[in-house]
Specification:
By secondary structure, this protein is an alpha/beta fold. It has nine helices and 17 strands. A hairpin with a 4-residue loop joins strand 15 and strand 16.
Length: 248
């Protein structure tokens, strides 16, 4: 049996989560409910739950403020929020899932399965640390991103990423210190996530950090990066690249 704590400042949301869990997740027992950061913290300390359903906006602070009270997170977290602006970017960079209100049984069950199957304590703490860093650091260029391989999980500053290169269903990540990380995420996922923070997909297989572009060899049709790597530019991306360079 999984012991859970529900933390939400609205009574109807507390009741909805508890009712959904009772109907669709019989392996989860709600040990306590709370409606604020402080009462939520006390409930976690007292009941030592395996899983916490955590609202983001509360009267005395945020769910992130609550998590900062713990030196190490020994419970799994499912974030529940009505505020989509919190969720879209920060959670994706941190590779954490969230639920948007109003809740549906299918989304709740899916989220529970993910936290049950996916991460161990060390992995969760690194993801939460990355999330909290991204929430407290407003500048997009100073964000961190979680990169996961078969053996390890990394929290990397975006400023330290030179480029991404597609390799089948995997993606190679080239870092400023010369290291390479092979992750099991597609190029499209990184493209969708990073195009508005200074990255440009110049080729179907290449996504570059524009801060590390050294020059564009127009006659050769390729880019030379500051680490001396050469990246091809597709014909349909040349015009977009030139427009961006003219704006710098």
């Amino acid at each position: 049996m999984i012991k859970a704590v529900v933390i939400d400042d609205e009574t109807n949301n507390q009741e909805l989560i508890c009712n959904l869990l009772s109907s669709y997740a019989e392996n989860i027992q709600v040990a306590s409910v709370a409606g604020s950061v402080e009462s939520g913290y006390q409930a976690i300390v007292e009941h030592q739950p395996d899983l916490v359903f955590l609202d983001i906006q509360m009267p005395d602070g945020t769910g992130f403020d609550l998590l900062k009270k713990f030196e190490k997170i020994n419970f799994k977290v499912i974030f529940v929020t009505a505020h989509q602006e919190y969720a879209i970017e920060a959670f994706k960079y941190s590779a954490l899932d969230y639920l948007l209100k109003p809740l549906s049984p299918s989304n709740l069950i899916s989220a529970i399965k993910k936290v049950e199957e996916s991460f161990n304590s060390e992995e969760l703490n690194l993801k939460l640390k990355t999330l909290l860093s991204n929430i407290t650091e407003p500048a997009k260029t100073k964000r961190k991103i979680v990169l996961k391989t078969m053996e390890r999980i990394y929290s990397v500053d975006l400023n330290d990423v030179i480029r991404f290169e597609s390799d089948g269903g995997y993606t190679k990540v080239y870092l400023l210190d010369g290291k390479r990380i092979m992750v099991s995420r597609t190029m499209k996922e990184f493209d969708d996530l990073l195009t508005d923070v200074g990255f440009l997909r110049v080729h179907n297989s290449h996504l570059i950090n524009m801060n590390y572009l050294f020059c564009f060899e127009k006659t050769e049709g390729h880019i030379v990066m500051k680490d001396d790597s050469i990246v091809p530019v597709s014909n349909r991306k040349k015009e977009q690249l030139l427009e961006l360079l003219n704006m710098i």
